[in-house]
Write a structure and sequence with these properties.
Blueprint lengths: L1 E4 L18 E4 L4 H25 L9 H16 L4 H25 L4 H6 L14 E2 L4 E3 L1
Antiparallel strand pairs: 1-2, 2-4
Helix pairs in contact: 1-3
Protein name: PE family protein
Organism: Streptoalloteichus hindustanus
Length: 144
């Protein structure tokens, strides 16, 4: 069994994350590819959703005056465009899912899986490198 600790992935330190399940992911040879596929799929679906939602997070000015335009820009920035905006926090979560999937690809290699087997375990990403990320199923053991 191999366990991955959540932590500093893609420059995102989640030490301020609330305690709970999902902080450590343990996989075995028989479920590592499935777990990777789940993570990739979840990241892909969430990114597709966020891409659609991004347009709706642009706040239009309520009037054609300087204050309304500035307020609309400030709200849009806070909701969507700022590095710590709610939208970007969700996008960074997908980055973390993809980073975890890449770590699981490394674990799968250590378990003896070939690049072809790793790529084939994620149908949406067949033909890509195992580290390109995008899908995975969590039949993995999650340890708190």
């Amino acid at each position: 069994m191999t366990c991955l600790e959540s932590g500093d992935r893609n420059g995102q330190n989640d030490s301020d994350s609330p305690p709970g399940p999902g902080r450590t992911l343990c996989v075995r040879r028989d479920n590592v590819l499935h777990a990777r596929a789940v993570l990739l799929r979840e990241a892909n679906e969430l990114r597709a959703f966020l891409t659609v939602m991004a347009r709706g997070l642009e706040i239009p000015p309520l009037a054609d005056d300087l204050v309304s335009r500035d307020a609309a820009a400030a709200f849009t920035h806070r909701l969507r465009d700022a590095d710590d905006s709610y939208f970007m926090r969700c996008w960074q979560y997908t980055d973390n899912l993809l980073a975890a999937a890449a770590e699981l690809a490394t674990v799968a290699r250590k378990y003896g899986y070939t690049e072809a087997e790793i790529a084939a375990s994620s149908p949406l990403f067949a033909g890509r490198s195992a580290d390109d990320g995008a899908e995975a199923f969590l039949a993995a053991t999650v340890v708190e």
